[in-house]
Amino acid sequence: MKTIPHWINGSPATGPSTKTAPVFNPATGHQQAQGTLGTPTDIDTAVQAAATAFETWSESSLTRRTQVMFAFRQLLLEHEEELGRIISAEHGKTVADARGEIARGREVVEFACGLGDTLKGSYSDQVSRGVDVHNFRQPLGVVAGITPFNFPAMVPLWMHPIAIATGNTFVLKPSERDPSAANFVAGLYQRAGLPDGVFNVVHGGKEAVDAILTHPGIEAVSFVGSTPIATYVHQQATAHGKRVQALGGAKNHAVVLPDADLEFAAGHITAGAYGSAGERCMAVSVTVAVGSAADDLVTALERKAREITVGPGNAPDTDMGPLVTKAAQERVENAVGTAAAQGATVVVDGRGLKIDGHESGFFTGPSLLDHVTTDMDAYQEELFGPVLAVVRVETLDEAIALINANPYGNGTALFTGSGEAARRFQRRTRVGMIGVNVPVPVPMAYYSFGGWKDSLIGDSPIHGPEGIRFYTRPKVVTTRWPQPATRHAAADFAFPTSS
Ligand code: NAD
C-alpha cells in the first residue's frame, strides 16, 4: 500500500508516527493509499524548518519572490492535467472540474505575481517641517493553512501564494481524505526555485490541527472547512495569540423571479447545484422560486437533473462523479429519505444509483426536492451533496427575508431581467458574495472571498487585498534628517505636534 508522506524542508518525510488514514478512490470504493497522520512532533519539525527558512526568505527581494511566483504559475499551467487527475482520483470530481479548480487557484498566483504593485506603501512629504512619513508592510513569520477535502488544490492556493510572496513561510495541513495534491504542489514550488523550508506539508487530522493551533512558533492560521471546526479553530488559535481567518460552511440560495429566462436559470442552477456532486461551499443547495416561476422552473430543473451523466471522474462524458466517502454517500441518501418523510416532494430521487463496473463506488444521483419548507432538515442542514431543495415564496422581499434568516451567508444568486430587483437584492441580502444571473459567484482572485454570518468566523476574508493585509503587518516610519543649522536646537519636552 502506497504511503503518502509529509513534505518538510524540501523532502518527503514520514516522521515518527505510524498512524495512517485510508485514502480511497471514491469511484471504485477501494482504498488506494494511506496518508500519514502527523503528530505534534511533525508539526514542530515543519515549523522549525519554516522558521529557519523565514530568516532568508523574508530578506529576499520582492523581485526574486515574484520571479518564483511566475515560474510556479507556469508549472501549474503545464501540469494542470496531471494534477487534475491526481485530484479526481482521490476526491472523485471530474478531471475537467479539477482542472477548473486549479485554474481558479492559479489566478491567486497571478495576483501574487503583481505584488510589486499591490504591496506598495505610501509616502507623505513634509508632514511637519523637515519631517516625512512613509509606511510599508512586513511578513508575519511562519503561518499555517488548514484546508478541506473539497478543493485540495484551490483552497490552499487561496492562501500560500500570497503568504509566500509577501515573505512568510508556510505549513499546510491539507485534508486527510485527498492529501496527494498538496505534495505535488510542493514539488512544483521546489522546481520553481522556492528555497527548501518555505513551503511545508504535514498531513493529519485533529492531532496535527491542535498542534498548529497551540504552537508558539506559528503567527497566523488560515482555515477553510465546516462551521463547527472553523469556530473551534478561531477560538483556539486566537486564545493562543494568533491571527486567524476561518471560513465555514454554507447554504446558498438561488432566487428565481418570474421575469427571469427560466431555461437559462434552470441550466445554470443545475450546474451550480450538481457540479462536483454538490461538494462546493458555493454550491446552490436551495432554489427559491418566486410566485408564478415555480411550476415551470421545477419542470425545467427536473428535466435537466435527469440529463446529468453520473460516472467516474476520469471518464470523459461524466458530468458528476461520486461523493468523497461512503459516509458522505449515506448521509446524503438518508437526508433525501428524511425530506420525503417530512413532507417534501421528491421530484428526482438519486438514491441507490449503481454505475456499471463501479458498483462499490460512493455514487448517488442528483436529487431534486420540491415544496421544501424552512423547518425541514433538508433546508436547515448543509447536506454537501447533489441535492437541490426548492422553496416556494410569493415575493422577492419574502425571498430576501428567508435568506437573511438563514444562519449561513456565503453566496447567493438572483435570476431576473430587472435591474431594480437585482439592485434591491444585492443591497439587502446579508450574504458576502452575490451573483446576478450568475449561480456560483466566486470572486476573482484580486477581490477577496468570504461569506457573512456562520460562513465566516471572525472578520477576515481570504485572498485578494484581504490576503495581503492578513499575511503582513503595517509599519509606519517618521523620518527627520536635520540640517546642520537646526541640528542643535533644543528638543521640545511637550508631546510632539506638527508645525
Ligand atoms: P472539515 O471541517 O471536516 O475539515 C476541514 C479541515 O479541518 C480538515 O483539514 C480536517 O482535517 C480538519 N478537521 C476536521 N475535524 C477536525 C476536528 N475535530 N478538529 C480539528 N480539525 C479538524 O471540512 P471538510 O468536510 O473537509 O470540507 C467541507 C466543509 O468545508 C463544508 O462545510 C464546506 O462548506 C466547507 N468549505 C467552505 C469553504 C468556504 O470558503 N467558506 C470552502 C470550501 C469548503
Q: Describe the strand arrangement of the main beta sheet, using strand numbers.
A: 15-16-17-14-13-19-20
Which bin fits the share of residues in helices? 25-40%
CATH superfamily of the largest domain: Aldehyde Dehydrogenase, Chain A, domain 1
**CATH A-level architecture of the largest domain:** 3-Layer(aba) Sandwich
Helix segment tally? 16
Give the tally of β-strands. Answer: 23
Low-confidence stretches: none
The average pLDDT is 97
Total discrete domains: 2
Largest sheet, strands/sense/barrel: 7 strands, mixed
Through-space gap between termini:
74 Å
By secondary-structure content and strand pairing, the structural class works out as: alpha/beta
Write up this protein.
- With 499 residues, the protein is α/β, with parallel strands linked by helices.
- It has 2 domains: 2-248 and 455-477, Aldehyde Dehydrogenase, Chain A, domain 1; 252-436, Aldehyde Dehydrogenase, Chain A, domain 2.
- 38% of the residues lie in helices and 22% in strands.
- The strands form 6 sheets. It has a 7-stranded mixed beta sheet with strand order 15-16-17-14-13-19-20, with helices on both faces.
- The radius of gyration is 25 Å and the shape is globular.
- The site of nicotinamide-adenine-dinucleotide has 27 residues, from helix 8.
